[in-house]
Amino acid sequence: xxxxxxxxxxxxxxxxxxxxxxxxxxxxxxxxxxxxxxxxxxxxxxxxxxxxxxxxxxxxxxxxxxxxxxxxxxxxxxxxxxxxxxxxxxxxxxxxxxxxxxxxxxxxxxxxxxxxxxxxxxxxxxxxxxxxxxxxxxxxxxxxxxxxxxxxxxxxxxxxxxxxxxxxxxxxxxxxxxxxxxxxxxxxxxxxxxxxxxxxxxxxxxxxxxxxxxxxxxxxxxxxxxxxxxxxxxxxxxxxx
Length: 241
Fold this sequence. Notes:
The protein is an alpha/beta fold. It contains 5 helices and 17 strands. The chain has a single domain, classed as Purple Acid Phosphatase, chain A, domain 2. It starts with 13 loop residues before the first strand and ends in a 9-residue tail after the last strand.
């Protein structure tokens, strides 16, 4: 603790830029991505591209710019880390028709992401099949060294698992003000990434579905400005009913 106030609105929490997972040193990007320096791999989860257009087809009037915003953010993260490979942990597309709704600008942005690097699209429950329009390669899951990358966490212990699916968020109160932020949820053996998609939404880390993934103490690493901030799970608040 340094006694200063940060953008979360209270005394500085423990700042966390790195985490050790099953012996692998990983960097928590404050935009909500994960970087593995030793392998030069960038990992993101739950882009949910074309969610806005999917809602529009059902008569829900959402602004149709979520895909462009998400890809712009991803391009910024890639420029920061310059990875040799990108792993997207499933639900990269919001539904099976999403690739056909992509506009020309978004298609070019996707092509740019793949220039000079490998892209591995992990199957998600929203996009279980390969999508040729995305380029790259498709996999149900992927193991590299001590880490296994998949969309949905498996039940029970899973040492070295890196997953998405749950879109974790954490709620805290600082100086009388409620704050709800996207977060990484992690212990020493398992890590769940926040959703990167602009319209992805989130599930509170105190929800039983998320808490059940961790057998002991775990933490929420809130994304915030230029840093991430570690909050012990017991200091996070459940959403009001």
